[in-house]
């Protein structure tokens, strides 16, 4: 999926529009750039839609506790578009449920026949930044009479930092479902003796590191939720990638064994970060926060060393120290706006 940030327009960072039809929003009636989407919404205002004020009825019937997002995208459960459609009709309207998912299914023809009138009409009464609603209405309308090259996704047209957070969380749920299955496989692979004990200790240290990683991310802007989610997801991805490497070819560990510069470079970069002026505005990374994250990382690194020793890959402990140190260097450089 792609995230569009229209930074040149102040409207793109405006608060989400109030519930109601986009065609009737008086605040933006004088903005000529919105005329086309507002006209489209006015033309479709009579399209029959689910009651926007319907209660959450998920406690009733066989769909109790269902999640249309999970069913539609196959997040932790098999894909079942028809069940997703039935579920979305019962859900309270919320992010990645209810009307948002119905819009997606009507646009893509999964779980229900394609109905662009309903998809666009749902976009017209949805929430979002003004430019976001405008783009979404137009992009759905442009699907008429053509064979789309890609499926519609609600996140394709976001323009606000707030919704970047929702979309980042949506993407993270895919990773977390896959990673949950990975953990089961890792536990089967290292199921005996000290290796099993050290694996659990590593997973616990990783969880702690993930929980504090966002503390050193710049949270001063509207995209703060997305940035924190991505920082946390990056730690989890590297953990799982490195465990896969250890269980398989061990190429990463083997290459890291000859890295003689990692520790010295970490010290240099860490000193630069601690000396950097991130500003005193709310949400800016602080030296205290960065030190706290660094302490959590050191415990995480040590848990890796203990696990590798127990797992017995035949590699020196320094190899995993070097590998994890390189990961940490990349994180610290990111705080400075640099890449390794």
TrEMBL record:
Q: Does the keyword Signal apply?
A: yes
Q: What InterPro entries does the entry give?
A: LprI-like_N
What is this protein's name? Lysozyme inhibitor LprI-like N-terminal domain-containing protein
Residues in domain Lysozyme inhibitor LprI-like N-terminal?
251-312
Instruction: Supply the alphabetized keyword list.
Output: Signal
Annotated signal sequence is 1-19
């Amino acid at each position: 999926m792609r995230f569009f940030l229209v930074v040149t327009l102040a409207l793109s960072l405006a608060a989400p529009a109030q519930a109601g039809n986009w065609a009737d929003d008086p605040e933006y009636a004088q903005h000529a750039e919105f005329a086309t989407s507002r006209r489209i919404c006015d033309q479709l205002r009579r399209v029959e839609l689910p009651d926007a004020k319907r209660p959450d009825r998920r406690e009733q019937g066989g769909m109790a506790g269902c999640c249309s997002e999970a069913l539609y995208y196959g997040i932790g459960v098999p894909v079942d578009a028809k069940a997703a459609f039935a579920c979305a009709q019962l859900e309270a309207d919320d992010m990645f449920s209810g009307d948002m998912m119905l819009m997606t299914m009507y646009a893509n023809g999964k779980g229900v026949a394609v109905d662009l009138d309903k998809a666009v009409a749902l976009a017209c009464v949805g929430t979002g930044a003004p430019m976001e609603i405008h783009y979404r209405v137009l992009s759905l309308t442009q699907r008429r009479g053509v064979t789309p090259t890609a499926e519609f996704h609600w996140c394709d047209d976001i323009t606000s930092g707030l919704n970047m957070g929702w979309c980042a969380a949506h993407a993270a749920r895919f990773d977390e479902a896959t990673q949950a299955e990975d953990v089961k496989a890792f536990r089967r692979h290292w199921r005996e003796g000290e290796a099993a004990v050290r694996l659990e200790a590593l997973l616990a240290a990783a969880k702690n590191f993930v929980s504090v990683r966002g503390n050193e991310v710049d949270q001063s802007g509207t995209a703060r939720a997305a940035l924190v989610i991505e920082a946390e997801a990056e730690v989890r991805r590297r953990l799982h990638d490195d465990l896969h490497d250890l269980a398989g070819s061990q190429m990463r560990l083997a290459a890291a064994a000859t890295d003689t510069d990692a520790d010295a470079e970490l010290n240099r970069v860490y000193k630069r970060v601690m000396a950097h002026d991130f500003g005193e505005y709310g949400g800016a990374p602080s030296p205290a926060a960065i030190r706290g994250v660094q302490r959590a990382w050191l415990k995480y690194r040590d848990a890796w060393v203990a696990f590798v020793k127990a797992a017995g890959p035949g590699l020196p402990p320094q190899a995993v120290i070097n590998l994890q140190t390189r990961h940490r260097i990349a994180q610290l450089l990111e705080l400075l706006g640099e890449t390794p």
